[in-house]
Specification:
The chain is α+β, with helices and mostly antiparallel strands. It has three domains: about 250 residues, PPM-type phosphatase domain (Phosphatase 2c, domain 1, 4-Layer Sandwich); about 80 residues; about 250 residues, TolB, C-terminal domain (Neuraminidase). The protein has 16 helices and 36 strands. Strands 2-3-4-5-8-11 form a six-stranded antiparallel β-sheet. Strands 1-10-9-6-7 form a five-stranded antiparallel β-sheet. A hairpin with a 2-residue loop joins strand 18 and strand 19. Helix 13 packs antiparallel against helix 14 and helix 13 runs parallel beside helix 16. It is elongated. It starts with a strand and ends with a strand.
Amino acid sequence: MYYRISPISILPKSSPITTCEIFLSEVDPEKELAAGRLFFLIEIGTRSPEDKKLIDLLIDDINFNFYQNEAFAFRDSGAAFNAEGILEKSLSQANLKLENFSKDNSINLAEKNFNVTVGLIYKNSVYFSVGGKNKAFAISRVKDDETSEFRLHDILKSSYGEADDSQGGDAIFSSIYSGTLPKNGYLVFTNEALSEYLSGKQMINIVTKLPPQGAALQIKNELEHINAYVSFLAIIIKNTMLAEAPRQVKVATKERSHSSIINLNNTERLTEKLLTPSGMAGFSWLGGIFGGLLLKKPDKLSGTKNKLIFAGERIVFKKTKGALAGLAAFAAGFGRNLHKYLFRAARRLKNPRSLGRSLFNRGARAKGAAIGLGSWFLKLKLAHKAALVIVLVSLGIFAWNIIFKTNQNKNSQLAAQLQSIVEQLEQKKNSIDSSLIYSQDRQQLKAQLDEYKTLLDSLPREIQQHPETFNKYLAVYEERMSKVRNVVDAAPEELASLSNIEPQSDPGWIFSDQGNIYAVDRNGGKVFKYQEGDKLLTKIFDGRGEQALDAFWDGGKIVIIYENDIIAVSSANGASTVIDSPFKPIIAGSLPSDIYNGRLYVLNRNTGQIQRFRKSQNSYISPENWLKTAADLKKADDISIDGRIYVSFSGGKILRFLSGNQENFNLDEIDPALAEPLKIKASRQTDNLYVLDSQNKRIVIFNKEGRFDQQYRSDTFANLRNFSLDETHNSIYILNGASIYKFELKKN
């Protein structure tokens, strides 16, 4: 940057009698380079709750109006950038805000001894306004020579010949000082107390011999020992540029001369141009034209009071109020007439012939009126014709100006809204990134990302339609959300397609054992065997002439349940054996089933029970109700056992039971939520619970307390049906349509 800046704030250790604030605007380097940096030095000679509110109001209002000005939004388009003008407009708006605040709270600012300095450092220039008894000093060398001594200049006295404590009249901010920082020079802004307790020589010695921060510390050391009830405030600015720059800080182009009415009028016009409210055109230039055309003695027009008008908003707002009142009256009259004519038109629509005559007569009258208006215009004197044309043109310009200003304000508001939302998005992004590194609490991260997405969705529609802006932040959301979702690309490998052997195959169950994969078809219960080492697919059992309802693995045999029979098929050679079991009568209302520790567990949807059978040679006998209290199992999808029993349901719910009783068990919420149908496998080797979610093309892994771990997804999984675990080799086999796939599990 072009400068270094350091604040000084020394407050009484007890019983302060003033309210003070030093504020340096916090902006990023890019914005500081483009727009500059605001600084505030404020002291109120009283202490009350309103004083702090007053200071906050002033700082917030000027800071917002300056940095949210539409000039910044359109700067990239090549529009001229006037930092001083924007600051002036912001100060004028602050004058009005202070006036309203004083009225609303019955405050007399003069009685409060209100002293304020507001300034802007923009590149190598400084612009500031002083209200009250605050001081401003420039420190520069007497000659352009490194050996020349430094001299202290009182800027306010240098500008007006003598100190003026009432520079602003009724307004706090009445004029702006501008200039470039002296080469290797300094600007020092202080309150009145500091300039009285610290001599000019002391100030020069300290400020010029130490860097700004060191000078600030030295001044604190000098003044802290003073036993006073006053506060000492200062801001030190040092020019760090090596290039030559004018050393004299001068008052801005708005001079305080009482002898030049021309310059005063120029100042008023400039101020009005800067302060004209949105949608209000400046028509002061018409006065001279109308004077030349309509008045006999134009030399009597110069009756402006000999007074600098910085806060010209009173005049402008009066004009705005009058213009808006006229427009409101016109709109009201137009509305009444429109209602009257529409009512008449509706009544005459019932009689088309009468309506036709009425329209013809009105057309004739309109034509006659137009001819009469033309004749009237031609009879006017030249000056009156010119005046009328000017009025019409002015009205056209006024209408165009309203449209232009409205669009301009809309763009400015969009830019301000975008900037505000973008700043919030950046803050949220930083918070999310911090949580990803240090917290790993997925519920907290999900909540933060939901807030981020809500902010993203609140971007104006006009911005959302620009993909380069919207997609940038959407990509951030998707990338962070993928980390929270912990989505892993399954990258499945297709091993075999059953349709190559059986074109109408419809597999529903899959098992793996010692490098062999077995698939059972719903159509007849056919059994296919894939030898992974030889990459050979064969059919080892031709099935029966009825649909298979369920199948499970039982120690080297594949047990297939039909409506009327239970068949055990050898995985070695495909030999089948019919099983005679009391299991048969409950098949119609049962299934699914699983086997654990030599016992068969069958879920009966109709009775809400899980029945347990004991295995005896080639049959399952001695059924008993395992659940101590029946449960609602009508919508159960699957069952898996590892000592506890897990039951999945349509809609993504999973229940857990132990020793016949239901346990308190909940899965973490994940994104997207579990859908249906669900197949589950509770690992008998690890703490993992695997859930197949066919609708979302994935297999999700939880731990057995319901905490989310990972999810494996692939667009290939368009028709997931079932899966089998091979945790010894860290693999999962998938039935997807009529094909067998395999993918490797990755360490989290």
